[in-house]
Structures are given as C-alpha cells and as structure tokens.
Design brief:
The chain has one domain (2-330). By secondary structure, the chain is an alpha+beta fold. The protein has helices spanning 2-8, 31-39, 45-51, 77-86, 113-127, 133-138, 167-178, 210-213, 294-299, 320-330, and strands at 11-14, 20-25, 66-68, 70-75, 88-89, 104-110, 161-166, 185-193, 197-205, 228-231, 236-239, 247-248, 250-255, 260-265, 271-272, 275-283, 290-291, 301-303. β1 and β2 form a beta hairpin. The N and C termini lie far apart (52 Å).
Length: 345
Amino acid sequence: MIATILHLIMETRKNRRDYREYFVRGEHLKLKELKSKARHSYLDTKRKKYLFKNKEYIPPYPRPEFHVSHVKHDTERGSLCWISKDGGFKDPHGGVKDPEEPSLVWWSLAVAPEEIRSAERRLLKKTFPNRTKEQARRQQSFLRKFASSPAFSEKSRYGSYRFTFRVEEVLEAYSEQFCFGAPPVLRVFRTSLYKQEVVYTVLVHSPHDDGRFSEYPELPDDDPNAVCAYRREENIFIWRPEAMCGTHWYELNYRPEDNLMEAWELDDWPQYYVWDHVVLALHVESGQVLKFDSDRLRQNLKFCERDDVTIAPKFYFDDSEEAQSVIESLWPESSLEKNFAGLSL
C-alpha cells in the first residue's frame, strides 16, 4: 500500500540553489502524466496556479520536434574565472551542496534559429503531407513566435557568460576523459517541477558506472513518443516540447482547407503557463574537470544580457563593458564578442 502511494506522488527537496523542487526519478513525464502525479502531491499554490491552469485559457500552440546539435552552459563571473583557470567545467560544489546527488556538470539544449525553422518545416510536412508547392509558397513563418519560453531566449537567467558547444564535441571530450574512449551512457534521470518550469534531465555517465546508475532507464535513440531522445549517428538530441511558450502571446490557427498554419496574436492579455526544457547532467566526480582547449573555450564564449527573471542574484550579472574587461584579463589574446543573437552558431 505504501509503495503504491509513493509511486503516485512526487518527491520534493531543496536543490543546490535552495529552490523547492518536486521531481520524479527515472521518467520524462509528459504534461498529462505530470499533472496526474502532481494531483497526489502537496504542491504549493504557485505551482498549482500554472500547472493546473484551466485549459480554456490556454490558446492552441504547436507541438514541433526539434533536432538540436548544440548545448550551452551559462555562468557568472566567479565561475567563469574557475573555468578559465581549470581549463574546463566541474561541479563547483563537488556534491557537497546535495549529498544525495552525484557530482554533476550542467548543460542545456541550445536551439539555434535554423533548428526552429527546420522544426517548422517538419511540422508542416507532418500536418499537411499533401500540400502543393503553391500552398508551401504561401505559408508564412510562424513557429518562432511561439518560442517565447526561456529555453529559446537569447538572454540568460544564470549569468552573463555563455559557452556553446556542439553536442558531439562535449560527448567526445567526456568519452576520452572519463570513459576510456567508450561512448558515454545517457539515461532518463528525472522530471522536475518548479513554479513555472518543467525540467527533463538526461544523465550522462561512464559505462564503468553502470551499476551505480542502473535504476535509471537508458535514453531512447528515437522513440517517437519520448519527450527527449538522442540520435547517436547524427549527434543530435530530439526534443519534443510539451509547452514551448511559457508566455502565450499567440494562438495557433489551422487552415486545413488551404494546408496552412498561422500565428494569431491574442486580443486579450497574454496567458502564462508552464514551460519545459531539456538539460544534461554530466557525471564528473568531485575534483575532476571536463577539460577543453583554452582557445576552444574562448571561441565558444559569448556575452549574454540578463533576463527579466533570473535564477542567479541580479548582482551576479555584468554589463558588456565589465564583461569585456573580465574576458581580456582571462584570455588576453582575445576580445569579447558580444552576441545578442546568442544561439546564432
């Protein structure tokens, strides 16, 4: 009886940033499944407000499939200095902040503008397989208007400095440094719920740690029903967002008679709902560093403006002039490239 009850509810804890997190281990739950679990859990009012928002107030929105080839790591000045000194990335707390959590280095999927356009083309082809060339010519771009969540933002919630690497480069470095050249293992780690944010975490670890992490199922390579998968032969993550908007400024309008999709601007106030994204948690033991060549670190580093809502305290963020000075001191041979496009790779 107790086991059945525990299976129905979400676990909860304070994470390493001291935010209340509700989570389910070993699953990437779609919103319907997440709501089912959450109904049996003691969620606070703020989480209920977003997750259980009346469907009548949520305008229709697209459900695309993104093929993502890059990951990003946002950080602030202090951590940037350590990254430069160490020549790479480590868990700054070495697992001390959360003794129940392995020592992890965190990355997020970085969806480039071209990947949004490609996802739009796939969605249109899937929805209207018989559309004509003339109908395709008349189709206006619409998907970018729905990409309003922080997952797609050019700004940062964590710090003024963003490293963006190809997935292939990160996993190859991890393989060489921690897996003796073998492919790393990718597992479905958990689904986490914050106030408005749903996080799908993928655990990356060495095959030598299979026994330690065997309770978590391996990430599928191309399950059409999975929120997230990894296609090894192409070195891309497949992400099928459950809620890509966060703030809904538009509603999706289908015109099946013309084989067209449109984004209609809402007449009323924008609607706020949950939003989701995918993060990678690379298992890097305390004291170890996922290393990259110093030039590669500098080449893949961009300045980010501060987002309106932040996770890190706002005084952790630098303006462009401060960032320029910091970068020049850490990489004297280079100057900071300020890239407001963020994900234009």
